[in-house]
Every structure is written in C-alpha cells, then in structure tokens.
Amino acid sequence: MQREEGTRRRPSLSLPILRTSRSQHRAGTLTLGNLLTELGETSFGWAIVVFSLLTLLPLPPGSSLITALPLLVTTAQMVLGYPHVKLPGPLARLRLDPVKLRRTVLRLRPVTRRLERILAPRYMLLFARRNERVLGLALFVIAFALFLPVPLSGWFPAISLFVFGVGLVERDGLVAALGLIFGGASVLLTAAILSSLAAGAEAMIH
After folding, report:
1. How far apart are CA 195 and CA 202, in angstroms?
2. Is the entire prediction scored with pTM above 0.70?
3. Mean pLDDT rounded to a whole number for the chain
4. Is 39 exposed, middle or buried (0-12, 13-18, 19+ CB in 10 A)?
5. pLDDT band, residue 40 (cuts 50/70/90)
6. DSSP letter, residue 61
C-alpha cells in the first residue's frame, strides 16, 4: 500500500554528505573547503554540521584542540556579523579521510533518524538577522567547551552543535533551540568536570 504524499518519508540528512564526499574523493578533491562549498555554498548551517562531524571523527585524545578550531572560527564570524563563512586558507585546504567521515556519519544515524522524523520549517524568527550575533555567541561558548581537552565531555557539545546546525539548515527553530539547550547543559557539564579536576589537583598539592 503506497503512503500518502503528506506522510512520505523526508530525504536522509546523511545522504548529501556521503554522496558529496564520495564523489569528491573519487575526483581527488575532497577537502574541507570543497565539501562545504558543494553542500551549501558558505552557509553557517552546513558549516556547523560538517565541522561538528569533524570533532566526532575517531582521532587520538586531545584532537579537539585542532578539530574544534573551524567551529570557533565559524561561530566567531557569526558574532562579528559576517554574512557567510570565510574559511582561512589552511582550513579550506585541509584534506579529509573519506572512510573516517563515512563511519562518523553512520554512527550518528540514530540521531539523524530521530531528527528526520520531526524536522519542519517553524519558529524561523529564531534565525532572524538581528539574532545572529547572540546565537553566534552562544555557539562560540559551546564550541569553546568542545575545544577544551576535558575527559568525557567532548561528545556532548559536538552533538549539540550538530543538532543546532541541522535545525539551521532545515530552518527548524524548535530543533535548533533543542541543540542550544543541550549545548548549555554540555557547557555546565564541562565546567563541573573542570571544577572537579581543579579541586582534586588542589587536594593533591595540599
């Protein structure tokens, strides 16, 4: 029995990234800048989605000091009122591992499947131009929490940024707001872990 038009399943969020990265890899042009340009010009939404994926790649501990840099740059540009993302040359030319990227995208399928079920254009006032600097500041704080090499905390800000980015791409203010709320909780978690580590270090010294 065919589904009605209104209940037809929406396209997968993962497919544009997987297809684009595969075709660029075959052409030998898979770089961070090329992937971002092909996906969504230089929009902040796709930039946040792609850059948060980078932080979730299977890399050695402490790699967030490097992988979080594009997110810090992007969110700082939002704070400064840039109309679109401007990647510095070294970041734009950064080559990506297509296998690791694919694995990371597939690992996030439980998250993206849930988002696909609820995504819809709504509460778009959140994305008004006048709100962009405030949103950028909130996202910069979340990205900074991700940047810090704090044990056990990196996954949470990365996921929250990914969810916000998806909400921005799809113009879903509700999903974007959920990403911000989760991001705020991840910042509090990072602060709590840092306080605990500092208290432990002080106890050892004394």
Report:
1. 10
2. yes
3. 83
4. buried
5. low
6. T
